[in-house]
Specification:
Shape: globular
Strand order of the largest sheet: 14-15-16-13-12-17-18
Strand content: 15-25%
Structural class: alpha/beta
Number of helices: 15
Helix content: 25-40%
Largest sheet: 7 strands, mixed
Bound molecules: 1,4-dihydronicotinamide adenine dinucleotide
Mean pLDDT: 97
Distance between the termini: 71 Å
Domain Aldehyde dehydrogenase: 30-486
Number of strands: 20
Oligomer: single chain
Family: Belongs to the aldehyde dehydrogenase family.
Active site: 257
Keywords: Oxidoreductase, Signal
Low-confidence stretches: none
Pfam families: Aldedh
Radius of gyration: 24 Å
């Protein structure tokens, strides 16, 4: 599918997927360009799907749902398991596609594909054991519950983890017996198609997983469609609000995975080497474009100088460049406007009195073919205050803000003083403090002595404005199914009439 080196990929096939095959949309609501961030090349001009195409996709998904909902959990699990096997088998090709379209290093893209097939495997396993309850009632009567699918679900994805988001949404949806229509971000239209092809080859009925390309207009057609039962969204807070509002008109349940400005708290009794590594992992994966990043790094006063020195040293060593090269650890940002936005945050940080200890500049790799890519050096800010823009707002780029604190009570207050609540982290050797702090942090995921590890067995999702509903873990079954109660009368009807 994909060429092996940066600057050579050409998109030839249609980018919508409907009824088990790639198709061109029957109508359009405009066009969007997708780039190769490493070179700035346009690699695809998308036809954004119009209302007719969305209607066809929903119709096709509905047909597949009628077949799929009647399968046993075990049968559904077998298809998911085969799909997981194929993702694993095609890991390199999928990772290359992801790197070309997103810009993250091939090293990281491979890790994303690992969590993707693991997610498929995990829900394949759960599919077979989904069941209701039997409840005994007076006089031999009884009731039972059936865990039933919702119907046609819509997944809307962000551009930072295109393939992984498609898997995290579709695996639990399909395991529960739903069909899914997935709309990738128009910046990253490519890799969801590879997943669609895999599902079909693995034995999913045609239409069970359709891909519809487009931006806001296409997303609205999907959310407003009367035969769509649920929307699962990953993206920004403002768009999340719109999704919820649209879905409310149809009383449709939503899962919202939104942004964050997560705190990472480093106590003086920590293992410093691990804390430094943790801070880098919390800030610089995927060029810092990660929703759960721990971008507010609170460091206890006694160790802040030592910690900062080591963080800067290790940040300087991050190899930036062609993301398809094996030893690259940081690629380009997603596009030009986003790079400008991130650099703008650094400018305002300086104006508000922060010190740039390292990085935060546009970067031009030596390879001439990368000249028009969207690279920057990762940035460490110190002398930050809680009221600065760089500390309050989600930057979604490789920018770490270091803040000093004295006491546990103080840092908890400051860490929780945000409208977001996606994740949080604490580094300490004091086991009681670790759990006490984790219990007090207002966040959907709290890491103790690590950061940004997301095993599929654990639920992931937000508190506060970071959203609600969960992805991964057992609990996600609840978000893709509904419970039917069946009452069974064994005696006669007693009527007051
Ligand atoms: N909590 C999480 O799991 C994650 C959250 N994010 C958040 O996503 C944001 C970055 O992603 P972006 O793609 O820029 O976010 P975005 O909100 O601009 O777009 C997300 C998706 O929504 C679609 N969309 C835009 N307007 C729409 C509308 N009116 N109706 C329906 N769909 C619409 C877009 O085409 C795209 O597919 C960041 O704020 C980040 O924090 C990103 C990744 C993971």
């Amino acid at each position: 599918v994909a060429a092996m080196s940066t600057g050579t990929f050409v998109q030839l096939e249609p980018l919508n997927y409907r009824g088990g095959a790639r198709v061109e949309p029957v109508d359009s609501s405009g066009t969007e360009k997708a780039f190769e961030p490493a070179t700035g090349r346009v690699i695809a001009t998308l036809q954004c799907s119009g209302e007719n195409e969305v209607n066809l996709a929903v119709k096709s998904a509905k047909d597949a749902f009628e077949i799929w909902r009647k399968k046993s959990g075990m049968e559904r699990g077998q298809v998911l398991l085969e799909a997981a096997r194929m993702v694993k088998e095609q890991k390199d090709a999928i990772a290359i596609m992801e790197t070309i379209n997103n810009g993250k290093s091939i090293f990281e893209a491979r890790l994303d594909i690992d969590t993707s097939w693991q997610c498929l495997e995990y829900y394949a396993g759960l599919a077979a054991s989904m069941a209701g309850e039997h409840v005994q009632l007076p006089n031999g009567s009884f009731g039972y519950t059936r865990r039933e699918p919702l119907g046609v679900c819509v997944g809307i994805g962000a551009w930072n983890y295109p393939f992984q988001i498609a898997c995290w949404k579709s695996a639990p949806a399909l395991a529960c017996g739903n069909a899914m229509i997935f709309k990738p971000s128009p910046f990253t239209p490519m890799s969801a198609l590879l997943l669609a092809e895999i599902y079909t080859k693995a034995g999913a009925p045609p239409g069970l997983f359709n891909v519809v390309q487009g931006g806001a207009a296409t997303g609205q057609f999907l959310c407003q469609h009367r035969h769509v039962a649920k929307v699962s969204f990953t993206g920004s807070v403002p768009t999340g609000m719109k999704i919820m509002e649209m879905s409310s008109k149809g009383i449709k349940p939503v899962t919202l995975e939104l942004g964050g400005k997560s705190p990472l708290i480093i106590f003086s009794d920590c293992d410093l080497e691990n804390a430094v590594k943790g801070a880098l992992v919390a800030n610089f994966l995927t060029q810092g474009q990660v929703c759960c990043n721990g971008t507010r790094v609170f460091v206890q006063k006694e160790i802040i100088d030592k910690f900062t020195k080591e963080v800067v040293k290790q940040t300087q060593n991050i190899r930036i460049g062609d993301p398809l090269l094996e030893d690259t650890r940081m690629g380009p940002l997603i596009n030009g406007p986003h790079l400008e936005r991130v650099l703008g945050f650094i400018k305002s940080a300086k104006e508000e009195g922060a010190t740039v200890l390292y990085g935060g500049e546009p970067y031009e790799p030596t390879d001439p073919k990368l000249k028009h890519g969207y690279y920057m050096t990762p940035c460490i800010l110190t002398n930050c205050r809680d009221d600065m823009t760089c500390v309050r707002e989600e930057i979604f780029g490789p920018v770490m803000s270091i803040l000093s604190f004295k006491t546990e009570a103080e840092v908890l207050d400051r860490a929780n003083d945000t409208t977001f609540g996606l994740a949080a982290g604490v580094f300490t050797r004091d086991i009681q403090r670790a759990h006490r702090v984790a219990a007090e942090l207002q966040a959907g995921t709290c890491y103790i002595n690590n950061y940004n590890v997301s095993p599929v067995e654990l639920p992931f999702g937000g508190y506060k404005k970071s959203g609600f509903g969960r992805e991964n873990g057992r609990v996600t079954i609840e978000y893709y199914s509904q419970l039917k109660t069946v009452y069974v009368e064994m005696g006669d009807v007693e009527s007051p009439f």
